[in-house]
Specification:
By secondary structure, the chain is an alpha+beta fold. The chain is about 30% helix and about 15% strand. It contains 5 helices and 6 strands.
Length: about 190
């Protein structure tokens, strides 16, 4: 299946669900691209920061390996999810991940149309690999598998429950090497 160009989809979704705010004057506030094949565990990402040369970086990247074999609705739902992140960051100027503003916009979009679904986490098939690390939340005890250690990663459920969806140092995950398989109580963070 051939992948669609992202820019026309972006402009359509921006008009329909963001009142054109993500492309004022027709110029997108973010760059869009399909991954080069390395983004294989998540369907998409929004990131903002600085490049190595000091220039601004603000982009949405969608996973070619995960989305290419799936129906168009998967691409639309994933792109719209990442556009909500961009909207919260660039338009509302807030630092939240899946906090109250994200969830409210997601609910509004899902209620206004039935072509695709925007969700917090995708359920697309992901290739499995051996687990190297187990992350453990010191508050609620949830565990999740990771391929590599991630600095300052916090438990989403505890951040949402205790800190209005904002990252908080008290919820930072503790990583330990995976020596034995995680039991059936394993849950994603």
């Amino acid at each position: 299946m051939t992948l669609e160009p992202l820019l026309p989809l972006f402009h359509r979704l921006d008009r329909e669900h963001f009142d054109g705010s993500l492309a004022p004057g027709g110029q997108p506030l973010v760059t869009l691209r399909w991954s080069d094949g390395r983004l294989s565990r998540t369907a998409g990402l929004y990131r903002r920061g600085r490049r190595a040369d000091g220039s601004d970086l603000c982009e949405i990247v969608l996973s070619r390996p995960l989305l290419e074999p799936l129906p168009r609705q998967a691409t639309l739902g994933t792109l719209c999810h990442e556009m909500i992140h961009a909207w919260v960051d660039r338009i509302l100027d807030l630092r939240e991940v899946h906090g109250p503003h994200f969830r409210a916009r997601m609910a509004t979009i899902n209620a206004r149309q039935h072509d695709f679904v925007v969700s917090l986490r995708h359920s697309f098939p992901v290739p499995t690999t051996a687990t190297r690390w187990i992350a453990h939340c010191p508050h609620c005890g949830l565990q999740a598998r990771y391929q590599r250690r991630r600095r300052n990663l916090a438990c989403r459920q505890c951040c949402e429950r205790w800190h209005n969806g904002l990252w908080h140092a008290s919820c930072v995950l503790v990583f330990k090497p995976a020596q034995v398989p995680v039991g059936p109580a394993e849950q994603g963070l």
